[in-house]
């Protein structure tokens, strides 16, 4: 691990950025391998990663990225042909670099064999010399560098020439400056270390552009620096040789960049450096060098690193400041009332001298207070808004921070399933609050997994349907007013509404007549229910039959909503709408039973004033007509089960409303295509409020997402639109009669599972798991016995089978079971150590409903899968 904390933090950011850019670029390069501009970009990324790693001291990353750099250069110059094998090797290499960077900043073992990766890359670079020994010494016997000058100094490739021009000038400038500092402080080891590091970088850059003459000379220069670092020689002994060498190197660099011949004695310079090295090897004079410690950078830092806990605390203070500003505004309103009252009192009570004196003083004081508070309130409002904006900006990060994680995921999943996918990303530059990035990473990951695994067909199937064999998946973000919208879409199968209904009935979530009353959009939204899945074949990729409920939960936690657009055989779009910041929330305030509540504005379609005669009964429920559609009207007070805390006040308000306006106030909510109207007592105002999180003791409160403090100092509960809709559904659904429930409870029996497994150890473990989960287990030691027991007439609710077994293996057993019509609907799960995609495909073809790999096996996965299928 990198010892220096500051360097570690810098490398964590820069290393990850370079690896992400390489990964993204390679994905594009696979489809356009002749793109020279992209190859030049990838070349620079590899070069930068190499340079950063060299400076920090991460040798493995430096060496591997240098090999990648050479590959990109040869591809760009048409000295190497692109192939799928090369692409896969480069892609795997970038993945390994990511692990090595992570290891360098966390000290967590990467499991990467660097030598093996370099060896594999060298298969595509057969003429590349091996990396010099770590100590840098060469004995000149042919195992090190060739010192014969090859007059092939001009760099033909313009892009490489431009890159080398920039890097070489930087290297030369740094070498000269470090030599100058060494002259002033000849015993400071830090300058020697910097001189050595810079020469190493210069040497590798020269090798990369094919400048063997320069490479050899700089290598000898580096050996002298190593001898200087090891105190085998002193700086005064080699100062002139090093200065002369730099001038010769400068002249040769000029020749390489311009083609103009360098008038220098290359061989003589090389010989002098070699003599210095020989002298250092034979010297017995070992000096000691005092460590003066690392010098600070000469450059001023224009950025600082701020721990997130400080920003979070600052955000809390900003929220409090906003509340204070609101309360001060409220106080100002009260003071205005006092001014009006005083004016009234003064006009009627100025008969005595004393009252006139008091009046004069109050005449002076009250206007002063009035203007002072108004001025301060204006200033506080300005400061609060500026501070709030600045703090929000500190927390904003581009969506690309998480978007860049997904191309590789989609690519790898597609390859595992033999699917061809074009993955498109847009809107990564849009910035959002850091918390949104953290909370949305897993939901987007799950939606993309589903798109690859569930939605897209195999190429042959797409051809039969008249589609492009290459499926398309997109991840797109865009602004919509003050909100952002993130879409995950595909051009695959689309959602099957009838299949969703069948699954809902099978799982006893809804009855046929209830589903018949739902719109297509409402039916599609059922896939977000816990444990809901229409998937007939379950693997680790498709999940455990759970996940979309977690997607919705995470979105709701961010005060957002998710919707679905889907067309059969054309595809689906999951659309997540969020606020770009989670610190504040735009809410509509209203009063219920004398208490102020709030609802997020984005869930409100409109507010209504309803005449009592406009309310009618439909299917036993109060109903109104909105835009020519019947909408159920629900009393918010009844739904929230609020007691009448101030009956007199509320009754007066209702009576006054009936007498003066004869209107009932209501709020129309639209959530996931479901529309309901909620009757409230009074509609208040729309406010941008600071949300107060719920205490950890109350992890989840039904119908409530949080609270805020109003300007009056009162606590206002912010209601959850999704929960309100669910609460209405629960109270209006027809329930099974009490007698039927009792009858069902009396007839409940344990589900029976046929367990087919030849290993006694595995069999024992699985039986214990199933017993504990409430299943009755019948044992069979191989496929033949399992089939015979099944044919003997026993009733089973599910079958769990191994694949590799004597007499009859699991695939044969599955296929034989499915030959019988009476067994075709029995859930059958294969649990095996065979983990390839081909094995999983064979399992699905044989008729299995799920495929669990023993290497990834855990009891939760088995039971969750079984519960979902039974």
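Q: What amino acid sequence fits the structure above?
A:
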């Amino acid at each position: 691990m990198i010892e220096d904390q500051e360097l570690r933090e810098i490398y964590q950011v820069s290393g990850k950025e370079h690896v992400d850019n390489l990964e993204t670029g390679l994905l594009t390069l696979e489809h356009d391998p002749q793109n020279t501009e992209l190859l030049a970009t990838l070349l620079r990324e590899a070069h930068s990663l190499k340079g950063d790693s060299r400076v920090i001291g991460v040798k493995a990353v430096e060496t591997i990225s240098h090999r990648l750099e050479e590959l990109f250069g040869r591809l760009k110059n048409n000295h190497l042909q692109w192939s799928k094998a090369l692409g896969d090797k480069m892609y795997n290499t970038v993945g390994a670099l990511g692990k090595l960077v992570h290891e360098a900043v966390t000290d967590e073992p990467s499991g990467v064999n660097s030598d093996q990766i370099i060896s594999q890359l060298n298969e595509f670079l057969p003429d590349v010399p091996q990396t010099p020994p770590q100590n840098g010494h060469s004995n000149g016997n042919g195992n090190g560098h060739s010192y014969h000058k090859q007059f092939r100094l001009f760099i033909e490739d313009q892009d490489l020439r431009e890159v080398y021009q920039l890097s070489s000038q930087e290297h030369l400038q740094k070498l000269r400056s470090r030599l100058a500092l060494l002259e002033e402080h000849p015993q400071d080891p830090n300058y020697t270390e910097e001189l050595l590091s810079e020469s190493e970088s210069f040497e590798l850059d020269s090798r990369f552009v094919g400048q063997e003459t320069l490479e050899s000379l700089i290598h000898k220069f580096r050996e002298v620096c190593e001898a200087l670092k090891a105190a085998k020689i002193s700086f005064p002994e080699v100062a002139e040789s090093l200065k002369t060498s730099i001038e010769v190197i400068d002249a040769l660099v000029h020749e390489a960049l311009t083609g103009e011949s360098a008038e220098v004695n290359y061989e003589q310079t090389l010989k002098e450096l070699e003599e210095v090295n020989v002298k250092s090897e034979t010297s017995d004079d070992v000096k000691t060098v005092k460590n003066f410690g690392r010098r600070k950078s000469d450059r001023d830092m224009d950025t600082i690193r701020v721990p997130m806990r400080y920003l979070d605390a600052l955000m809390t203070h900003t929220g409090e400041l906003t509340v204070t500003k609101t309360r001060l505004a409220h106080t100002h309103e009260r003071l205005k009332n006092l001014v009006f009252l005083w004016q009234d009192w003064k006009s009627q009570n100025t008969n005595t001298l004393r009252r006139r004196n008091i009046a004069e003083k109050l005449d002076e004081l009250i206007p002063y207070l009035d203007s002072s508070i108004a001025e301060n309130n204006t200033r506080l409002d300005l400061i609060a808004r500026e501070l709030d904006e600045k703090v929000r900006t500190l927390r904003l990060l581009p969506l690309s921070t998480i978007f860049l994680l997904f191309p590789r995921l989609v690519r790898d999943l597609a390859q595992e399933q033999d699917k061809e996918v074009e993955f498109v990303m847009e809107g990564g530059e849009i910035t959002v609050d850091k918390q949104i990035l953290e909370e949305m990473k897993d939901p987007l990951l799950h939606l993309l997994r589903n798109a690859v695994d569930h939605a897209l067909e195999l190429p042959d199937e797409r051809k039969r349907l008249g589609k492009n064999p290459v499926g398309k998946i997109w991840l797109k973000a865009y602004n919509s007013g003050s909100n952002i919208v993130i879409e995950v879409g595909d051009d695959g199968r689309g959602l099957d509404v009838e299949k969703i209904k069948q699954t809902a009935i099978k799982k006893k979530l809804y009855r046929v007549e209830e589903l018949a009353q739902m719109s297509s959009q409402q039916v599609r939204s059922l896939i977000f229910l816990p444990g809901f899945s229409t998937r007939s074949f379950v693997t680790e990729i498709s999940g455990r039959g759970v996940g979309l409920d977690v997607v919705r939960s995470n979105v709701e936690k961010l005060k957002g909503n998710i919707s679905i657009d889907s067309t059969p055989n054309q595809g689906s779009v999951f659309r997540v709408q969020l606020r770009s910041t989670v610190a504040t929330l735009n809410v509509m305030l209203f009063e219920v039973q004398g208490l102020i509540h709030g609802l997020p504005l984005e869930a409100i379609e409109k507010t209504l004033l309803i005449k009592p005669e406009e309310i009618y009964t439909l299917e036993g429920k109060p109903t109104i007509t909105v835009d020519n559609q019947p909408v159920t009207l629900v009393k918010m007070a009844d739904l929230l089960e609020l007691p009448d805390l101030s009956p007199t006040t509320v009754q007066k308000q209702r009576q006054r409303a009936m007498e003066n306006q004869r209107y009932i106030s209501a709020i129309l909510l639209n959530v996931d295509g479901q529309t309901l109207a909620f009757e409230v007592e009074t509609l208040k105002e729309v406010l941008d409020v600071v949300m107060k999180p719920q205490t950890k003791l109350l992890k989840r409160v039904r119908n409530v997402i949080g609270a805020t403090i109003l300007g009056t100092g009162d606590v206002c509960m912010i209601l959850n639109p999704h929960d309100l809709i669910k609460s209405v559904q629960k109270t209006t659904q027809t329930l099974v009669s009490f007698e039927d429930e009792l009858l069902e409870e009396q007839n409940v029996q344990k589900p029976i599972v046929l367990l087919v497994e030849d290993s006694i150890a595995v069999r024992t473990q699985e039986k214990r798991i199933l017993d504990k989960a409430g299943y009755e287990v019948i044992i069979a030691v191989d496929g033949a016995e399992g089939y015979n027991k099944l044919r003997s007439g026993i009733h089973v609710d599910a079958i769990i089978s191994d694949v590799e077994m004597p007499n009859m293996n699991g695939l044969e057993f599955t296929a034989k079971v499915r030959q019988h019509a009476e067994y075709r609907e029995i859930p059958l799960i294969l649990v095996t150590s065979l983990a390839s995609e081909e094995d999983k495909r064979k399992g699905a073809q044989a008729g299995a409903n799920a495929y669990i790999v023993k290497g990834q096996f855990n009891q939760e996965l088995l039971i969750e899968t079984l519960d979902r299928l039974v």
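Q: And what stands out in the fold?
A: The first helix runs from residue 5 to 31.
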